Amino acid sequence: MSVSTDGHTVKRYDQQLGDLRSLVLEMGGLVEDQIQRAVQALQDEDLGTAREVIARDHVVNGFDVRADEEVVNLLALRQPVGSDLRLILSMAKTVTDLERIGDEAQKIARMVTHIFDGSSAPNQKLLRDVAGMAKLAANMLHGALDALARMDVDRAIEIACGDEELDTEFQSALRRLVTFMMEDPRTIGHAIDVLFMIKALERIGDHAKNIAEYVVYLVKGKDVRHVSIESLSAAGKG
Amino acid sequence: MSVSTDGHTVKRYDQQLGDLRSLVLEMGGLVEDQIQRAVQALQDEDLGTAREVIARDHVVNGFDVRADEEVVNLLALRQPVGSDLRLILSMAKTVTDLERIGDEAQKIARMVTHIFDGSSAPNQKLLRDVAGMAKLAANMLHGALDALARMDVDRAIEIACGDEELDTEFQSALRRLVTFMMEDPRTIGHAIDVLFMIKALERIGDHAKNIAEYVVYLVKGKDVRHVSIESLSAAGKG
């Protein structure tokens, strides 16, 4: 709550906090859509959609700048302490991660334009892991945003722990790509494009994990960013 | 300056601000050292140093947590406005980027242990671009930290604009790696390790650029994160 005891001020402050939260969640929705479209563009060999995703990154960046301004305004005008201060700082960090997720979605879209722009279409075998990893990464982001919207620390911990599954998938997909390249060196060019796509998806998982960790910090007041999964699970029970 | 007019409070506040700055710059020095050692370990085929870099990432993470606590304390206790608020928020963002640069240095060290752990040493040709890119990335980070220490906006703009050179180097190095892989598919495994190293160096450049942009924001009050290089150069003159 605001330190002010003036009812009117408190109400406006709560509204401003709510507006910031809405802005962050709206940005999250946009970024989710960017990932989904970039991966759909790959599946449909749809260069038009891929170019739209690339062009729309500036809208994501616009949210970033607006949210940052809101954060500065709230801190300067309302001078929050305690849990409100933590909430605002967590929102600021979430925005940074969402902006970087937007960059990764844009990279995937760029790889789509690259992979279908050449003379030959890529071997479908190369693409087989992308959809599965994209689903895992998108689910992580959706879950992290859901945990943020509901301040649900158990869900947040579940999401943060889920990052290991995505990392394992990434390592398996990478091994398969290397095998394809060795078996048929003509696939190397396309395989490198796919490698950058799955790397982008793995990073989206890292950012979703960050967002989930901010939720734990918010609710528990514990900074769990650099602790092991075991300690993280323990934090949920603490 | 603090909003307080009490001389003693102002002095302690300035000291706390100075302490935060020192902490951030010390963390920057540590991270610079991590990059330098990781790349040295590659050149010297020195697995021991690589493992030290990996182990020392927890020290970088410790700085991250401490700096974040300092930021929360300063905001809660001192309730800064205007340029002081911007300074503190820029320091918080810088810390996030430094922590991620630390992660990238750790990744390079992991690749060093991976590339020299197999039965055969990598072809030296594969490594030829790493040292040059590492120098560019390290120079960018050093320049960004220097610009931050001196609040030198011209230097910061120079650094931010320098990221294009690193990106171009990355693209050239990537093309050469693909060529090597195609000419000699036995090099694919090692080439992928090198690919992840140069990708990490390219990302270090991105983070250094971010830090340089916070300096511009701090001094000019302009958010230049999502503007073109032309506008960025114009901001320096503005």
What can be said about this structure in brief?
2 copies of one chain form a homodimer. Helix content of chain A is 83%, strand content 0%.
Q: Which keywords apply here?
A:
transport (chains A, B); PhoU (chains A, B); 83% helix; 238 residues; PhoU_dom (chains A, B); phosphate transport (chains A, B); cytoplasm (chains A, B); homodimer; mainly alpha; 0% strand
General description of the model:
Chain A is an all-alpha fold and 238 residues long. Chain A has a single domain, classed as Methane Monooxygenase Hydroxylase, Chain G, domain 1, CATH 1.20.58. The first copy, chain A, is 83% helix and 0% strand. Chain A contains seven helices and no strands. Chain A has helices at 7-44, 47-78, 82-115, 130-150, 153-183, 188-220, 229-237. In chain A, helix 4 packs parallel to helix 6. The longest helix of chain A is centred in the first third of the chain and has 38 residues, at 7-44. Chain A starts with 6 loop residues before the first helix and ends with a helix. Chains A, B: InterPro entries: PhoU, PhoU-like_sf, PhoU_dom.
Question: Helices, strands, pairings?
Answer:
The structure is a homodimer of 238-residue chains.
Chain A: H1 7-44, H2 47-78, H3 82-115, H4 130-150, H5 153-183, H6 188-220, H7 229-237
Helix pairs in contact in A: 1-2, 1-3, 1-4, 2-3, 3-6, 4-5, 4-6, 5-6, 5-7
Proportion of strand residues of chain A = under 5%
Mean pLDDT reading of chain A: 91
Give me the Rg of chain A, rounded.
20 Å
Q: Tell me which protein chains meet in the greatest interface and how many residues each side has.
A: A-B, 32 and 33 residues
How far apart are the first and last residues' alpha carbons of chain A, in Å? 25 Å
Which CATH architecture of chain A? Up-down Bundle
Largest sheet geometry of chain A: none
What is the domain tally of chain A?
A: 1
- By DSSP (H or I, 4+ residues per run), the number of helices of chain A equals 7
The top-level CATH class of chain A is: Mainly Alpha
Low-confidence stretches of chain A at least 5 residues in length (pLDDT < 50)?
Answer: none
Topology of chain A as a string of helices (H) and strands (E)? HHHHHHH
Quaternary organization: homodimer
Give the strand tally of chain A.
0
Estimate percent helicity of chain A.
over 70%
CATH fold-level assignment of chain A? Methane Monooxygenase Hydroxylase, Chain G, domain 1
Query: Superfamily at the CATH H level of chain A?
Result: Phosphate transport system protein phou homolog 2, domain 2
Task: Assign the structural class of chain A, choosing from mainly alpha, mainly beta, alpha/beta, alpha+beta, or little secondary structure.
Answer: mainly alpha
Morphology of chain A: flat
